[in-house]
Amino acid sequence: MIHSSRFIVLGVTKTGDSSLVIHTLSPEWGRRSFITAVSHKASGSLLQPLSILEGEVLENPKSDLWRLRSLSAEYPLTGIRANLHKNTMTMFMSEVLYRTIRDGEGGEDLFDWCRRSILTLDALESDFANYHLRFLLELTGVLGFGASMEGLAPFAGTKLEVIKQLLSKSFAESMLIPLNGEQRSEIAAVLLDYIAHNTESQLNIRSLGVLRELYQ
Predict the structure, then answer these.
(1) Confidence of residue 43 (pLDDT cuts 50, 70, 90)
(2) What is the pLDDT, as a whole number, of residue 192?
(3) CATH 3.30.460: does it fit domain 78-214?
(4) Listed residue (91, 69, 78, 179) closest to 127, CA to CA
(5) What is the pLDDT averaged over residues 111-135?
(6) Which residues touch 147 (CB under 8 Å, ≥6 apart)?
(7) pLDDT over 80 at 62, yes or no
(8) Model pTM greater than 0.90?
(9) Least confident stretch, 10-19, 80-89, 108-117, 136-145
């Protein structure tokens, strides 16, 4: 059986010279991995973190690893791909999703929210350095437990007041809160600890250090 669907790329694993396992989010299957045959050129341009793709899934009754083919970009995301800071931010966001969402979890609501978040980042022309913090706060709501001052207090320490501002201000206002790279990194670490606690998972987000250095 063949299905057409849309996919958000969370990561890839090389399995051979001409095949990759793609870790994705989709409306139908939530988080799921697929195998695909792809050239090195295509994998470099098409399968970057948080790319939004269209493609066909070939079910395999003998394996849980179904095949993905006829991949194309639903959106070019030129606003992200032409910007080093945004690209690094999508690395962080995709790693958070990959390590937080378990296989089979998710669905249409999570996919739609992620898609909107990606397209919003793509469209922003300036003042997006705090975007990943807002993304983490919104993710807590999508995952079902939300962010509250009472719940965050044991994790936040001296960062609680800034997190309160990020929560209470409008989106545009929250993007203008003045923070340096170290402060953003510390706040992100607080929110990751909060997410890990509520999802009972271990989150070791390696790309957070890259973001910190980039925004110093």
Answers:
(1) low
(2) 97
(3) no
(4) 179
(5) 97
(6) 137, 140, 141, 163, 167, 191, 194
(7) yes
(8) yes
(9) 10-19
Q: Percent of the chain, pLDDT > 70?
A: 97
Distance of CA 82 to the CA centre of its chain: 18
Q: List beta partners, residue 11.
A: 23
Distance CA 100, CA 202 (A): 8
State the greatest distance between any 2 C-alpha atoms of the chain, in Å, as a whole number: 54
In the chain, residues under CATH classification 1.20.1440 are 78-214
The superfamily in CATH containing domain 2-73 is Nucleic acid-binding proteins (2.40.50.140)
**Residues forming CATH 2.40.50.140 domain(s) in the chain:** 2-73
Contact (CB, 8 A) for 138 and 113: yes
